[in-house]
């Protein structure tokens, strides 16, 4: 069963929350982070992406960058200011994007549960990205980017969440990207009720933040080698019920056609698949939309083998196996420089612009993976193809930090 731990959050005062809150470090480039943080000295991007505050061209993994992150973190604590809760607490965190709402529990979660797969994974992590966040955590002495978790919805947990949502919020603001963020502090008398309720939740699933969780596990190992048990035995996360989580497609753009013409690529595809005109977004699982030479097409991928692994039945995997590999020569999507990945929040207009501007030769728009697929693959110990899911809306860094 899953364990839930209150923690003494380091957080901004309510008046500073909207200025401090920042998008996750890994959804923006250095230049995008610099642009967002420009003119806002309280932006948490000065901590999570401290390379924006050192000389241009500096290696983002240089010691100088991690030292700067640590200094910026201390300066932000004084300037915002950031305050530390008197007692360990829990929080309820609601995200609102247009008509969509999802409300989760912000807490610390057990790294023992992570190690023993009570907290389940579906993605392989890259060593270089783990190295970066592990060094960052150890440099600033805190976990500042929450892991996005989900769990099978449980009425006994939802009832407690609903009761908390009826109280006065700690933070309530609309970010510049029109995502609403509301955070409530769980009443002192309800903390143990949340802990007990979560003890009946059989498993948690990492939705977004595999590298944060893996880095927390590595930071724990290093801290334990010199200091024994401590706050580093848990990691910061927000857990949402599965029936509220929203997954958008993670689309693909290919920079060239491997020497072929658009007409010849289309001809090869017509030999293997049923292809019709439009739309820009597939309307059902098993179809993929392709933008080629100024036209949207729908490609019917066909039925996957029911005997294969669950992950291999996803549209994203079929696209790679049936089209990107054999027709366009895309090998390992983790390393091939001819492919780029586009989160569904950018819309299909971005795909069209990429092709029309000459930045790409062809674009593919996918039907979103379901939360049920994610949980089934995780339960089976499977690994999803790279860049399969784009969760939206996203949590903000800096609102609740776990200091160790």
Query: Helix fraction?
Result: 25-40%
Domains counted in the coordinates: how many?
A: 2
Assess the beta-strand content as a share of residues.
Answer: 15-25%
Low-confidence stretches: none
- The average pLDDT score comes to 96
Radius of gyration: 22 Å
**What is the tally of beta strands?**
21
Give the overall form: globular
Indicate the structural class: alpha+beta
Distance between the termini: 25 Å
Q: Profile the largest sheet.
A: 9 strands, mixed
The number of helical segments is 13
Keywords:
404 residues; alpha+beta; Conserved hypothetical protein from pyrococcus furiosus pfu- 392566-001, domain 2; 2 domains; six-stranded antiparallel sheet; 13 helices; 21 strands; 32% helix; globular
Any chance you could write out the topology, listing elements then pairs?
Layout: E1 4-5, E2 9-12, H1 17-20, H2 30-37, H3 45-48, H4 63-79, E3 82-84, E4 91-97, E5 100-110, H5 111-115, E6 119-120, H6 127-140, E7 142-143, E8 147-151, H7 155-165, E9 171-174, E10 179-185, H8 191-198, E11 204-208, H9 210-227, E12 234-241, E13 247-248, E14 250-254, H10 262-272, E15 274-277, E16 287-292, E17 295-300, H11 315-324, E18 339-343, H12 347-356, E19 362-366, H13 371-379, E20 390-391, E21 401-403
Parallel strand pairs: 6-11, 8-12
Antiparallel strand pairs: 1-5, 2-3, 2-21, 4-5, 4-10, 5-12, 7-21, 8-11, 9-10, 13-20, 14-18, 14-19, 15-17, 16-17, 16-19
Helix pairs in contact: 4-6, 6-9
């Amino acid at each position: 069963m899953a364990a839930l731990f209150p923690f003494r959050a380091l957080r901004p005062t309510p008046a500073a929350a909207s200025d401090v809150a920042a998008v996750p470090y890994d959804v923006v480039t250095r230049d995008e982070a610099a642009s967002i943080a420009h003119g806002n000295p309280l932006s948490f991007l000065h901590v999570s992406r401290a390379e924006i505050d050192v000389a241009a061209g500096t290696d983002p993994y240089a010691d100088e960058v991690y030292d700067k992150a640590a200094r910026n973190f201390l300066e932000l604590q004084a300037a915002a200011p950031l305050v530390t809760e008197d007692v360990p607490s829990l929080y309820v965190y609601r995200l609102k994007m247009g008509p969509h709402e999802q409300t989760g529990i912000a807490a610390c979660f057990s790294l023992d549960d992570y190690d023993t797969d009570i907290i389940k994974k579906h993605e392989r992590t890259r060593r270089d990205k783990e190295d970066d966040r592990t060094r960052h955590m150890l440099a600033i002495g805190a976990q500042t980017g929450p892991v996005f978790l989900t769990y099978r919805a449980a009425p006994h947990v939802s009832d407690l969440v609903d009761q908390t949502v009826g109280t006065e919020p700690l933070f309530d603001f609309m970010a510049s990207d029109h995502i609403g963020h509301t955070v409530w502090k769980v009443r002192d008398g309800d903390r143990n009720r949340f802990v007990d309720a979560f003890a009946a939740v059989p498993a948690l699933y990492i939705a977004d933040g595999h590298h944060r969780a893996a880095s927390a596990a590595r930071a724990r190992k290093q801290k334990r080698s010199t200091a024994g048990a401590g706050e580093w035995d848990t990691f910061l996360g927000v857990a949402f019920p599965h029936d509220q989580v929203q997954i958008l497609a993670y689309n693909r753009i290919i920079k060239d056609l491997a020497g072929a013409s658009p007409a010849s690529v289309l001809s090869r595809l017509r030999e293997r698949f049923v292809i019709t005109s439009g739309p820009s977004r597939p309307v059902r699982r098993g179809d993929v939309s392709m933008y080629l030479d100024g036209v949207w097409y729908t490609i019917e991928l066909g039925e996957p083998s029911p005997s294969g692994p669950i992950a291999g039945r996803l549209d994203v995997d079929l696209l790679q196996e049936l089209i990107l590999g054999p027709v366009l020569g895309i090998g390992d999507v983790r390393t091939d420089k001819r492919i780029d990945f586009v989160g569904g929040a950018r819309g299909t207009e971005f795909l069209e612009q990429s092709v029309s501007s000459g930045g790409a030769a062809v674009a593919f728009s996918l039907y979103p993976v379901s939360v049920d697929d994610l949980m089934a693959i995780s339960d089976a110990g499977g690994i999803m193809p790279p860049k399969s899911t784009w969760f939206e809306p996203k949590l903000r860094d800096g609102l609740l930090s776990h200091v160790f």
